[in-house]
Structures are given as structure tokens and as C-alpha cells.
């Protein structure tokens, strides 16, 4: 050893650099054993559509936020019904937010597809009736959101100017998150000091587009605000977003940025084809492999949403 330190040849330096690079690559890419261990740890949540479960290697990874996007009439709401129905069948509590229709209309339509929600205990958050038994499903429609917004506004200081500035609207993300939190309490899935429900919950919001219809440029911010406030490991969420008929793009481009998965639905131009032909593709899904090709969508009496391979 010299007073200049340890002398290392160029060949040795190259070997060290190779070894360091190899270690970095191994850290980036888990070994096959590590991968299989991760895959085993993933709990799959059924979509309620057998062909879609198969395309997702068994279902949506638990805790995912799934954006369902597409133009009107492509089957987005029916896909939500299947997800809720599958949850009720296995004992998962369901929170069903509907801004597009009253829940009684959802019930009627679901019956046509062999899903009878009235077999289960349903509680509407806008109801003035006293809660009896713990329900299986809590419904939040526009009337429920109005009720929560009014309660939130009444809870602020009585100063007129403050009240005017801070009055909460029904179609406001803060109102939505407060309503969802109230639904968790009604379902009895919260424990004091713990944010995530103690049981797995299925959350459906059909649709998110209503919350930014008059300010689409804010969609991305509102989506992030909602995820920060409402995302929980023990909650798997479907969020519907409409596509504009003219531009064929999502209103505000909000949900696809924060979603773990995206189901995109569309249909052929009926003026050209003279028939209704619907399609769906899984654009992305984190934590799992998934089918990369599109499916033909059929909506059938007694069955509902059915996927058929294009191959």
C-alpha cells in the first residue's frame, strides 16, 4: 500500500462497475420467486363478470381505484351493478353513489339482468327513518348529497359572510367524501382512530362527471382531492366518467390519471354501421397482468354485461 491509497487497475474498476450495475438491475426487477410471492399476496375482487375476471387473472386487485370511461349507452352503469351484486353475494358491504339516476331505477334495471338488490337490506342516506338493522348497501343519490351538504353548511359559524363563502354544494368533492364517510359509519365498518374500514367495502360512484360538469378544467384536481380523502386499502372502488360525444374524450381527463385501472368502453358509429356494436378494453390495471385486446360487449336480458373475445 502506498501513501496515495489503494491502487486499482482499470480491469478491476470495470468489474466493480459491472457488479454494481448487476445489483441495481436485480433491485429493479424482483426475482421470479419474489414475483410469485407478490402475486400470491394479491387478493382478487370479482367484477361480477366471469369473462372480465378471467381477463384480469382472477379479478381486480383489492384496494384498486378503477375508472370506467366511455360514451353514454356503452354499459358503464350495468358494469357497476355487476360489481355491487358480486359484493353482496360474498358479504361485502356496498356504498353506491348515483348522480345519474335514482337508486329505485337502478334496482328496476338490475332485475332485468337477474340481479335482485331488494333481497338485501338497503338504506338510503337521505332517509329520515331511524336506522334499524345494519344494512348491506348504503345508497347516496343527489338527495342524499343535498342532505349532507345542508348539514355541513349548518355546522359552520353563523356569521353571514362566512356562511355565504363556505356554503357546501351537493355536487362538491368535500360533500361526497363526507357522505361516503357517513355511509361507512352506517355500515358499521369503522373503528375509532382507524381510517380504513375494518371490513372490505365496495364503493361505486356513478358518475364522477357530475362533480365537474360545469368546470371540466378542475377534474384532475378534484380527482386527486377525492383520492387523498377517500382512498383506503380495504376499499375497492369503481368510478364512472362520461366521454364527450363530440370529442370522444373524458370530461376533464381527471380520473385516468389517479386510477389504478381503466376500463374503456365505446361503440361503433351507428349512423355508419346501422347497428349497435359495443366494445371494451382494459387500458391499464396495476398489480396484475391483463388481456391486451378488446372484447365485444353484449348486454343480454337475464345476464347483463357479457364479454365476447374478438378472436
Automatic annotation (TrEMBL):
This is KaiC domain-containing protein. NCBIfam families: KaiC_arch_4 (TIGR03881). Keywords: ATP-binding, Nucleotide-binding. GO terms for molecular function: ATP binding. The keyword Membrane does not apply. It comes from Ignisphaera aggregans. The keyword Nucleotide-binding applies. Residues 43-311 form the KaiC domain.
